[in-house]
Amino acid sequence: QVQLVESGGGLVQAGGSLRLSCAASGDRFSNYAMAWFRQAPGKEREFVAAISWSAGTKDYGSSVKGRFSISRDNAKNMVYLQMKSLKPEDMAVYYCAGRVGRDYITRTHKEEYDYWGQGTQVTVSL
Q: CA torsion, points 63, 20, 75, 54, in degrees to nearest 10?
């Protein structure tokens, strides 16, 4: 099993940038494909970005493509989400998620991930 802890959320003005981090512990991190999801109040949890175990494959939700970038450092057991040109509609709780898998297929459905962090709040002001 892997334990996930997000950090880096906060308040940012529209148009600004923020980098989220997710620290993994407990199991060999390179065995896991990772992803970021987000959930705004009253809405379903939404796919944001995914990355394969070796970072060879990445995928993004349509609403963040071109603005967000996912990366990982297997030596440090970390996964990151760099967010640029933030909009008020990006405001949500952001969750780090993991699933065992050393393939190159990215999964975009929350049901496909077995491990979740507690979330970090991102607030975007006008």
A: -10
User: Quick one: which H or E segment has residue 115?
Assistant: strand 115-116
- Could you read off the pLDDT of 71-105 as tens digits, one per residue? 999 999 999 999 999 999 999 999 999 999 888 88
Amino acid letter, residue 126: L
Sign of CA dihedral 105, 110, 114, 117: positive
- Check if the beta carbon of residue 89 is closer than 8 Å to that of residue 69: no
Q: Where are the beta strands (DSSP E) in 3-91?
A: 3-7, 10-13, 18-25, 32-39, 46-51, 58-60, 68-73, 78-83
Mean pLDDT of 43-55: 96
CA 113, 72, 27, 120 torsion: positive or negative? negative
